[in-house]
Sequence to fold (1364 residues):
Amino acid sequence: MRVSVVGASGYTGGEALRVLLGHPRVEVAQAVSESFAGKPVWKAHPNLRRVTDLAFSAPDELRPADALLLALPHGTTMRRLAAYASKAGLLVDLSADFRLRAAEDYARYYEVDHPASAEIGTFVYGLPELHRSELKEAARAAVAGCTAAASILALAPLVRSGLVGRERVVVDAETGSSAGGREVSRASHHPERSGAMRLYAPTGHRHTAEIEQELGLRGRVHLTIHAVEAVRGLLATAHAFPEDGVDRKALWRIYREAYGAEPFVRIVEDPTGIHRYPDPKILAGSNFCDVGFASEQGRIVVSAAIDNLMKGAAGNAVQCLNLMAGFGEREGLDFPGIHPA
Amino acid sequence: MRVSVVGASGYTGGEALRVLLGHPRVEVAQAVSESFAGKPVWKAHPNLRRVTDLAFSAPDELRPADALLLALPHGTTMRRLAAYASKAGLLVDLSADFRLRAAEDYARYYEVDHPASAEIGTFVYGLPELHRSELKEAARAAVAGCTAAASILALAPLVRSGLVGRERVVVDAETGSSAGGREVSRASHHPERSGAMRLYAPTGHRHTAEIEQELGLRGRVHLTIHAVEAVRGLLATAHAFPEDGVDRKALWRIYREAYGAEPFVRIVEDPTGIHRYPDPKILAGSNFCDVGFASEQGRIVVSAAIDNLMKGAAGNAVQCLNLMAGFGEREGLDFPGIHPA
Amino acid sequence: MRVSVVGASGYTGGEALRVLLGHPRVEVAQAVSESFAGKPVWKAHPNLRRVTDLAFSAPDELRPADALLLALPHGTTMRRLAAYASKAGLLVDLSADFRLRAAEDYARYYEVDHPASAEIGTFVYGLPELHRSELKEAARAAVAGCTAAASILALAPLVRSGLVGRERVVVDAETGSSAGGREVSRASHHPERSGAMRLYAPTGHRHTAEIEQELGLRGRVHLTIHAVEAVRGLLATAHAFPEDGVDRKALWRIYREAYGAEPFVRIVEDPTGIHRYPDPKILAGSNFCDVGFASEQGRIVVSAAIDNLMKGAAGNAVQCLNLMAGFGEREGLDFPGIHPA
Amino acid sequence: MRVSVVGASGYTGGEALRVLLGHPRVEVAQAVSESFAGKPVWKAHPNLRRVTDLAFSAPDELRPADALLLALPHGTTMRRLAAYASKAGLLVDLSADFRLRAAEDYARYYEVDHPASAEIGTFVYGLPELHRSELKEAARAAVAGCTAAASILALAPLVRSGLVGRERVVVDAETGSSAGGREVSRASHHPERSGAMRLYAPTGHRHTAEIEQELGLRGRVHLTIHAVEAVRGLLATAHAFPEDGVDRKALWRIYREAYGAEPFVRIVEDPTGIHRYPDPKILAGSNFCDVGFASEQGRIVVSAAIDNLMKGAAGNAVQCLNLMAGFGEREGLDFPGIHPA
Fold:
């Protein structure tokens, strides 16, 4: 299958390229980038030197392909949807442009009037653990936001088991610097960002909308995002407040039932050792989402760790594409991560 | 005033020495350490090379002094209190041994039968922002735990203003590796700890007891501690759920009233720039606690940043000592921290 | 082919397991570890959770296999060689026990009388770029030390081109913490090791012997090793002093001729951009060695970057094994590394 | 004494402000910044919040003062010298504009025709350890470059003792990100810079000129600069090649004689422990330069560690000012650094 990556010089696009170049069923047709057009791919992604001879194409050179993986800034896909749809039968969009089902939410969270609101329903929310059967039938996927993916995977089993009830949920997410993308800024300047440990978005982050939508918790998710020292890692820690007590054994049963057969979700909860809970440190480059939990009187704490560019973006996109294309769900995604990292 | 530091080779003891060696009203009489007895102070604390000629004394060489600063493992001061009390009129204890007022809490949180429970009442909880006038009269202080100090300073103004009401409070704290102290372990092994981002104590951390005690929130504080990449920093982020709405202006008023006159608490909440919220990154070596806040429908988010060895331990201890000894509260504690750090 | 890893719970053993578990021609027969015997492999290597069901075997449970990959502390293989040789036809040893050809060098550099000096000649030095044809015929390989591998790959083309002449060579190597292995120590305690930038071995490091042997520079290599903040990375920067001038074009020709056909050595030298020189940051998990260079009047500077556990140990070992077993040299080693990392 | 800092919003200017605000003999008259004019000082330097009420002044608001500390981009002081000289009797310049004594060197190293070459002789090279008596008489100082300061302090005793002879010297310097200053760039983008370990300037760095000038080693200094993960630290490691052997005792004598009385140079060379050699990690915020050494047949290795913004810039500048103004040399510079850091 011929796949092109549009927006291929960014961090997400680069990871999409890396994964697709190693995918046994995929040929990368084009790597499209406005700013790097004409340059070899390794100029933006030095890890791909000698791995591919591909050079970046300009946007107007985009050719028809079987699938497009769109790694563009928010607001781009929604404006150019018809053009992309004319090029390929399968569209996997990594932006937020078609994640939310209610058109008015785009105005609220992204301050934009959705120019293609009639098309929203043609996209499936790109999180295979919740939408696998729809993705198998879909031609278009809107890949989950990174914080949303982790938060939803942490909380979904609790919600389904009724343990969240009518209570609010608090999610504290910690994130590395690659989540901010390739563009430089004062906030990403190394002397300022290195070793930081601060509130990045105490309230009102856009991913809240996705989490609430997917979990059916409208108005009840309180999300806070912290910037900490890391490049790739993302850890979402959710606090739920069950009405009745719940013990470790019950939580194990709930999570094992939810994720025992999932190819990319692992339950990490050990009573001993130093790897008792999920840590995104060992997930760099892998598509795993590690989920762990604990509880005390009146509270359940669940944390989910991912690589924000993989299960939080490009890896998850390829997992969606595998389902949409009828490939094996794990194909191209077998890198397990390294330890120590 | 002649002050001796007992347990002076640990990280907290080292910071106590550094601060006291630069204190205009203090002469460091002895630095006591079992493991380093006889060695120069710089052997444990390389920053103090050429700053002091002092060598460590063995515990049985402890001489009478005006004040003792006790930086010992939990459980030591409670067993040797009489011996220390016989050496000095002022005792500033950095362990947890006399922080909790209810003797039964030591069994619950520290699995120990308190051997000196009759003396608990002779210690004032060492957090000047809450107990300044008592500390001025006190001969003994039990310095606040690091996570407790930050959490209490974040939440106290909200509690006093009634904004916490009868609701629970969720506190997510992120902490650097020095909080684990000087002893090596697999968890502190650099390849494992570097870049970590994981749950260290999802539930049930001992500092919960102090926070609930000081804020009068028995059974309502849910504390989770994360280990992140940092050495000194500690950031406590508290989520409170007010019954009625509260805006930025009201929060400013509440915090300004609480902390406007505090020498070591700064309010950090800017609408612009990259330093909009507290970041312990710029506090290394300083005694400041930076507090910031935000709110949304149904939730207030407050974060407090400290250096866990300074305002979280040795710096706060010297601040207490200054009050107990009648010194200026800021004396010896004027280092503002560096930027970038 | 059935391969067992002995010393499988250490960092090098763990990487060997990861690579071999993904190798298309290899079945991992056993993972042998004294300290983890009976426990699942993921207890030591959390990245391998769900990747393998293997549990560690005790040393006395070692069964015959086609090949053994020995990841043991220095001094072990030399004492147990006969036992290992009786178990498998191919031995790939990661220790220093058979790297040096002169028996007396073990006394000088490792303070040990070699108990199997008659067998030294049966091992080929495990660096395919220098010994490919011998490795194809070999049954035993002594895999290069990490600093040695990088230094030799940096310098070999210069030596062959006569640019080193009779002059000395200075090598400054910077290394991450995983080079110190799995065992905890005060030097690896996170608060001490984090952000360090110091001389680890200013003079006399053991890898000097390997570099001098392989390059034919007896007594002329001056190696200094620095510990810097990193886990995996190793950068060796060599300074050579040619008698005559040499320009960029000539250096390109020399390195292209030496490495143009090498599957795992890349030349990284760009006049523009931020990736002008090798950086081990993008090599974590990959078997690449990136080499770059520059020159000025009287000096050539060459740097080689590797992942010290991959091209510096386990990856290089598998590359040797591929040659010894007649596999494709790249098999199992296709992970390109991630960016940003 | 009234001192104004010009270029006060940069990193060097910020450290100058921090030090001067705590200086017992100095009143900071103005903090001048073009980009931050009118804003409070803490907007650029968050550590100074509540430490000073000062706001930045615009350049054209500069008033007469006793001394100016000029922390401007290279090329600015040389063009505006007359204007600054008309404002204050003492000028301490942190740029490279007056460091080199030979006017033609500015063309070679800085690609600039010096517009005030007649004034070069009015500046003393700002490194008190080499020019103390001249600085005491001077009205103008050109503060040493950060890499130069460390390299010169490492090597000067060797040169004076004749141990360098007629041989070349190789200097490998490792530097943190603050050396690049406040301006953002792709090279300083956190995802790219974090954990980097690469050649920043393999050859031809400008500081070579200062080192050669101050040590009298024209054409014999080979400097290479590496970027590593750090914000403040700078470690210069010099390799010298003595004709005759030299042992540890002789080196100790040479360095003790050179630096035993220096207030800010410490000799760090211990046979045991983890602090055997200098590490800039413990120097953040301090003005110390720690020097250590080792030797082997044919080579001496000396390393010098500094905080690049303190002894490498602002701290050294204040030390110069103290001498020029007749103050105690240590005044305002007593912060010893923290451990662990």
